[in-house]
Amino acid sequence: MTLRPIQLLVAMISALTVLCYVLSLTYSLATTDHDTFYSPLTKHPQPLFSGGTVNEDNLGRWGRLLLDSLPSSSTPVSLILAYAPWCARSLDAVSHVTRVSEIFANTVNVFAINCFYNSEGSCFKAEGHEFFYFPRLFAKVRSFKGNLEYKGALNTDSITRWVTMITNPVIHITSPDHCHQFIFSSDNSVLIYLNTSASANDLLFERYIVAALRAIESDYLRPITFGLVTNSHIASLIGLQTDGSGLLLRLLDNHLPFSLRSFKDGNSLWLWVKPLVSSLTQPLANSNSYRYEAHRPVLFAFPNSPRLPLVLRRVALDYFDCDRSHKLSLVKQFLDSPNRGCQSFTFSPDYYYNRSSCSVCLDLSRPEPSCHNPSLSQPLNPPRTTRLFPTARDPLADPCCEVFPSSNADCNPKLCRTLRLFVSNDSDPHRKYATISELTRLSCHPKNSNKSLTIYLVDSNLRSSVEQHLGVDNVGLAILDNITERVYVLGSAITVASVTEFLTNYTRAVDLTPFLRTERRNSKSSHVVEVVSSDFNAVVLDPGKDVFLMHYGRHCGFCQPVSHTLHRLANTYRDTAPNLTVSRIEGDSNHLPLEYSVSIYPSLVLYPAFRKNHSVFYPPEVPKTLPYFVKFLQIFGSYVIGGS
Amino acid sequence: MVASTTLLRISIIAVCFTFSASSVNVKELKRLRRRARALFYRGYNAYLQHGYPRDELQPLSCDGVDTWGGYSLTLIDALDTLLVLGNATEFARVARMLIRDLDFDRDINVSVFETNIRVVGGLLSAHLLSHRSGLHLSADWPCSGPLLTLAVDVARRLLPAFATPTGMPFGTVNLKRGVPVRETPVTCTAGVGTFIVEFATLSRLTGDPIFERTALKALDSLWEARSPKDLVGNHINVKTAGWTALESGIGAGIDSYYEYLVKGSVLTGNRTLYDMFLVYNSSIHAHLKHGDWYVWANMNTGAKTRAVFQSLEAFWPGLQASVGDVSAARRTLQRFHSVWSRYGGLPEFYDIFAGRPTAGRETYPLRPELIESMLWVYRATKDSAIIDMGRDVLTALERTATADCGFATIKDVRFHSLSNRMESFFLAETTKYLYLLFDPDNFLLNNGDSSTVVPTPRGDCIVDSGFYVFNTEAHPIDGGALSCCSKETDVGVAKEFDFQPIVAKYFKEAAERVTEAEPPRSNSFKVTPGCQELQRRLLSGGSYSEVSDDDGQPVAVGVVFSDVTEGDYSEEFVIDGIVDCLTETAVKKLVGTDGEAIVELLEAEKEKHRVSKTYKLTALHQLATKSKDPRVYAHDCQADFRNSLPYSPLTCPRQTTESRLYSITFRNP
Fold it and tell me: Which end of chain B is least crowded, N or C, by CB within 10 Å?
C-alpha cells in the first residue's frame, strides 16, 4: 500500500499532536510535582485532609476539644491531631492519620486541628503552654480525665497498635491456659478478679482502666499488662478469692496482692505499681538514656525480626536467673513447650468480637510454620509509608511482612498464622541447654559483675540514632562496652543458641573480635590514594612502598588545606616516584587498631618502605607546606626522591 | 602558604552524634533537591522578570528597588548559586552580562562590609569557579580574568575606608569620593573583622599585598582592643578604638568576626588568627555559653545582660563543627532548630527564658544561618535527623514565604504575615545551603578525594580539591587556586624550620630499639584473676605485673612495654585491658576515690579534650598527678618527646604515635 503525500502529512500531523499531548501531559505532571508553593496561610489556611473520616478544623477554632471531656454522643475513644500547616512532619502525618481513621472508622472519632493559627489559644490551654513542636497526637478516652499523648513514631502501624491498646487496655482472661499465657508473656502484669454481676463493680473497673491507660501512656512499647478475671474458678487458681482483689505479678520479684477498693482512684493504683516493677529488658525510648550508663556495658537489641524480642527474653531469663528461681524456671518451661511462648499481635480494631491475631512463637521443637486463625474481618493493607529514611519497619506491629519478605510491598495480613520460628538448628537439645546453663553460671559469677549487661530493646524510631552512635549498620545485637569503648556485634541468625553464645563469649572475654568501622572502597581515581580500614594493611603496610598517610576527619576545616597540599605533592611525583604512595584515611568512618590511630586531625605519618615499624610522625610544629613535605620525605623515606 | 601547626582534636566516640552509618534515602534526597531547586528558580526568575536591574526584588508589589547602590546586587549575589545547581549556561550568560555592564565608578555611598561580602565575595567566587562554566578563560587563569578585575576594582574603592588611625574601617564609603565628610566613626565589630577571606584572596591572586595587609591590620587593632575578659563589644569607634556598645555575644554586630578568624586561618595558613579565635572561644565558653544556648554579657565584667537567641547566631554550630567541636555543635543546632519547629521560622530575637520572640523582633527575613549550620553539622556527623530538619525548613519556606513574585520576608513568625522584601541572601545563601544539604555529592562538598589539574604558564595549578572556604555570604573561595599565583610564603614562621634535632632523636630511638636489652620480668608478683587473660597475652610480648596484698587485693600495677615484635599481639587490647583492671580495682583502692568520681572525671575529660581512645589514659594520668598518694606515679611521655629528653623505654610505650601520651605506674612506696 502506498500513501499519497497528503495522507502522509495528515498522519504526521496527528502523530505530532499525540506527541504534543503526551509532552504536555508529562509537563503538567512535572509541574504538579513542583507546585508546592502556597499563598500566605494567614489569609486562607487550606485544609490538609480531604474530608472523609477525619474531621478537620483548618482554622484553629476547635481547640477546646483538647480541653473539654468527651461529649456523650462521641465514641468512647477520640484521636486529636494538633498540627501546623507549614510543618513537614504534620504533612507526613496526614496520610497515616487518614489511614488510621479508616481502620477505626466506626469505633474512634478522629479530629485534626490547625493549632498554629489558633488565635484564642484554646489548643494550648489543656497543656498549660504553647506547643513547642508539631504535630502532636492526643487521645481522649471516656472515663479518663485529660489527654493521653502518643509519643511514638507517626506511622500507621504504630499508631494503630497504640489505638488498639488504648481501646482495650484491659485483657479479659477467659481460660486457665489464657491466664498462663498472660502471666508468662510479660515481665510485669496486674491481674484483678471482679464479679461482673455486681453493678457497683462498674466504678471499680473504670478505676482499673484508668491505671491501665496510665501504664500505656508511660511506656507505649511494652506496657505493663493489665488483666481481668471474671470467672471465680480461674480466680481461685491464682489465689484471688475476694471480689476486687488483685495481684501485681513480677517476674523478677515476689507477687504483691492488693485490693482495688483500697485505692481511691486509678491514678493512685498506677502510682503504686510504677515504682515496684523492673524488667528483663529496658525499652529504649529516649536516645539519651543509655549514655549515662558510662560505667556499665550495654546490650542493644535492634528488633529486625519479630522473634528477636522473644529470643532475647528467653536468653535474658537465663542471664538474670542468678538465684535459680522456681518462678523463672516455670516461665522457661512454659516458653520452651510447644505452642506456648507465643506473642500475639492484634490487627483488628474489633478486639472483643473478632480476635484476629498473628502470633509469633518461640518454639524449640517444631520447625515448620503452621496456620492459625487466618480469618480477618477486614484485610488491612498498610499504605506504603513515605518516610524520609528507611527506618526499620516496626516488626512488632507487622510480623507477617517479616515472614513473607517477598510480599513486603503490600503485605497482606490474611497470611497471618502462628509462626513457629524455630530457634535453632541444633539437633541435640542437650548441648543447647548445657550452653544456656553455662551462661547463667558465668553471668552470675561475682567476678564478672563488671561485665553485666543492661539490655535495651531499641525502638524503631531511635534505631538510626543508636546505629550512628555505635557505627553499626543493620545488625541484630550490639554490645557497647563503655569502659573499653569497644563494640561487639551479632549480625545474622538470631537464635537462642547464637545469642547465648554471643553473651557467653562476651562475659568470658574470649574469641570476640571488636567491630571496627570501615567504609567501602572508594573508586574515585586520584593520585592521592584513599585508604579504608579494610585495605589499610595492603596499602599502608605494603613493604615495598614509602607510604605518606594523612589522617583526617570530614568535619575538620584545617584538613582541607593539607589535603590540597597532598594533591600537589602527589601531582609533583606522579611520574617520577613510583615507590611513593600519598594517601589519606578518613578516621571517623574508618577505625584502626590503636597502634595506628591518632588523636588529632590532621596528622601525617610516614611508613617507610622495608622499615614499616620505623614509622614517623610529621612533626606538628613543622608547617604543612609542599617544600617541607618534600624535605620530610627526603629525610625519612627509604627511597630517594628529587626536590620539588 | 603554611597550613602550619594548627591541629584539631577529634571528637570522642562516646559523645553522641559523631558518627553515622545510616544511609539517607537517595530518592527522597533527589526529591528534596528538586524542591530546593524550584525554590531558587522561583525567586530567581521573579527577580529577573520584575526586579532586575534594581538591587532587590519586592515580592508583594512585583517590582524592583535599589537598596545597596544600584548595581543589580541580587544578580551578583546569586551568580554562583547557578553553578551549584549545575546551570553553567545561565552562569556564563549572567557573568558576561555583568562583565559588560558593571561599572563601580559611581558617586554612591555603600556599606563597606556588605559590599565586600556580597560584591567582592560574589565576584571572586564566580571568577574562581568560572572554569566550570565554559566561560572563556585567560591563559593565566586563575591569576587574572575580567571578573577578578572587577573584584579588584571595587575592593580598591573600599580601601579609603581603612585610612584611620587604627586601621579599622569606617562603615560607609563613597565608591568615587572615598569616606563621606562627617561619616560616623562608630562601626560594628563584624564590620571591622570581616575582610580577611576576600582580601587575602585578592592579594594572593594578584600578587598585590595591600589587601591582605589592610585586613590583617584591622584584625590586629581589634585584637588589641579586646577586653581583659577576652571579649569584644559590638560597636567600636574606628578613630579611637574605644568601645561604644559593650554588649558581647556571638550574634548581630560580632558574628562574622569570629567566623573569619577561623576561615582566614584555614585559607591563608596564618596560625595567629586561629590562636586569637581559640582565646575568644574559651572566653565565649566561660561567659556566654548557657547550657547549649548562648547569651549576651558585658564585655568588661562578663556579667550576663540578655538571654536572647538571635537568628544571626545560628551560624555558630557550623563553625564549631569545623573546628572539631562536633557534639556541642550538634546539641546547639538541636536547640536552635527547636525554635524553628515552633514557629516555622526564626525570629530575629528569641527570648530564651520567656520562650517567645522578643517584642518588635518577630520578623524572619529568610536568613540562611540555621541552614548553613545544618549543612556543616550534617557533613560532620552524617546524622540523618539533620536532613529531616532541612526538610522542615524547606517545607516551611514553601508554605509560608511564597509571595506573588518570589519569596517574601516573614513580618511576624507568630502569624506568618509578609513584608515586601526579598533580601539578596535568599538566593545567594538560603537556597544554596539548602540545595547543598540535599546534595552531598555536590562538587563544593568534595572532601578532598579528587582534584583537577589546570596547566598554566606558571606550572600545574590544582583546583577543585575540596579546599573551599565559604565567605560569610556563602560565596565559596577555592583556596587551592591561591597557591597557583603567588610563591609559597611561610606566613607565621620566622625562620626556616630545622629538622635536625628531630632527625637525630629519631635515629637515636631507632638505634635504641635494636640494642635495648629485654626488660626484667618479675615473676614474684601475684596476679589477680580478673587480669589473668591480659597477663597471659602480655607475657608473650611485653611484660606486665600486678602486685597483690595478702588479701588478694591489688595494690600496685606496673606496666612495662618493651619493644615487642609485631605479631598477633594487640596493643589496643593491652591498654584497654590495663585500664579495665585499674579502674575497677587498683585505682579505687589506691587513689581513695570511688568509682563514681572516676567516671565523672572521665566524662569531664571527654568534654574537655574530645580525644577518642586516649582519654582514659589522660584522665588516669591527671588522677595520678593530682593524687597525694606516694604510691601513684605518673610519667608524661609526651613531655619527653616535646622536650627531646631521652626515651625511657621502661615507663613509656613506643613513641611512634602521639596517642600514647602517658604511662601510669602504681607502685609500692
Answer: C
B324: left (phi over 0), alpha (psi -120 to 50) or beta: left
Enter the pTM of the model: 0.75
SS (H, E, C) A70-114: CCCCCCCEEEEEEECCCCHHHHHHHHHHHHHHHHCCCCEEEEEEE
What is the value of ipTM here, to two decimals? 0.75
Chain-centroid distance, C-alpha A477: 12
Q: Nearest Cβ partner of B399 from A85, A134, A525? A: A85
A vs B: CB pairs below 8 A = 335
Contact between residue B545 and residue B532 where contact means Cβ atoms under 8 Å apart:
no
Asked if residue B13 lies in contact with residue B612, where contact means CB atoms within 8 angstroms, the answer is yes
User: Is there a contact between B381 and A468 if contact means CB atoms under 8 Å apart?
Assistant: yes
Q: In chain A, what residues touch B14 (CB-CB under 8 Å)?
A: 291, 294, 482, 485
User: Cβ of A37 and B42 within 8 Å?
Assistant: yes
Do B448 and A564 lie within an 8 Å CB cutoff?
yes
Query: Quick one: cell of B507?
Result: 635515629
Cβ contact, residue pair A599, B10, below 8 Å: yes
CB contact A390 to B (< 8 Å): yes
What is the number of other CB atoms lying within 10 angstroms of the CB of residue B637? 21
CB contact under 8 A, B488 and A627: yes
Which residues of B does the annotation mark as catalytic?
Answer: 114, 255, 348, 369
User: What pLDDT shows up at residue A520?
Assistant: 62
Pairing of strands A298-301, A454-458: parallel
CA atoms within 13 A on the CB side of B294: 27
Most confident of A175-179, A460-464, B18-22, B654-658: A175-179
d(CA B231, CA B299): 5
pLDDT in tens, B593-652: 443 444 454 445 444 433 333 334 444 555 555 544 444 444 554 554 445 444 443 344
Would you mind telling me the total number of residues written for chain B in this entry? Answer: 669
For residue B502, list chain A residues with Cβ-Cβ distance below 8 A.
Answer: 619
- Map residue B351 onto helix, strand or coil: strand
- Rounded to whole angstroms, the Cα distance separating B229 from B382 reads 36
Whether the CB of B387 is below 8 Å from some CB of chain A: the reply is yes
* A632 touches B: beta carbon within 8 Å: yes
Residue B655, sorted as left (phi over 0), alpha (psi -120 to 50) or beta, turns out to be alpha
Q: Tell if the CB–CB gap between B25 and A388 is shorter than 8 Å.
A: yes
Contact status of A283 with chain B (Cβ, < 8 Å): no
Which of A468, A597, A621 has the CB atom closest to B613's CB atom? A597
Q: Give just the sign of the alpha carbon dihedral A155, A157, A161, A167.
A: positive
**How far B335 CA lies from chain A's nearest CA (Å)?**
11
Instruction: Report yes or no: B529 and A447 within 8 Å, Cβ to Cβ.
Output: yes
Pick the range with the lowest mean pLDDT from A400-414, A538-552, B112-126, B377-391.
A400-414
